[in-house]
Amino acid sequence: MLMAEGVRTGRIDTVRPEHTPEAMGRPPRRDDHGGEVYVYRRHGQPCLVCGASVRTTELQQRNLFWCPRCQPRFRSRAASGALG
């Protein structure tokens, strides 16, 4: 959805309009690495959508950030028996 909107407007935003600082009544993110993001580089801070604490781990020498409430653990269809 965000990519389709980016193609339409000619720019890529990393948060939906309803989650911008203005829409949520909060100050904008101040960081040397870019604009608004949901979880990137926000370990231990509240998720901007649901308020859960953002988590991080390393995956193949890269930092991985996620919200445990908005982005629950993925279970493959194969693991759940849905493929056959």
From TrEMBL:
Signal peptide boundaries = none
- Show where the FPG-type domain sits: 38-72
Outline the segment boundaries, as ranges, of region: Disordered.
1-35
Return one GO MF term.
zinc ion binding
What are the Basic and acidic residues biased-composition ranges?
8-21
Matching Pfam families, A to Z? zf-FPG_IleRS (PF06827)
InterPro entries tied to this protein: DNA_glyclase_Znf_dom_DNA_BS, Znf_DNA_glyclase/AP_lyase, Znf_FPG/IleRS
PROSITE patterns, from UniProt? ZF_FPG_1, ZF_FPG_2
Parts forming coiled coils: none
GO BP annotations, alphabetical order: base-excision repair
Q: What is this protein called?
A: Unannotated protein
What is the phylogenetic placement of the source species in the record? Answer: unclassified sequences, metagenomes, ecological metagenomes
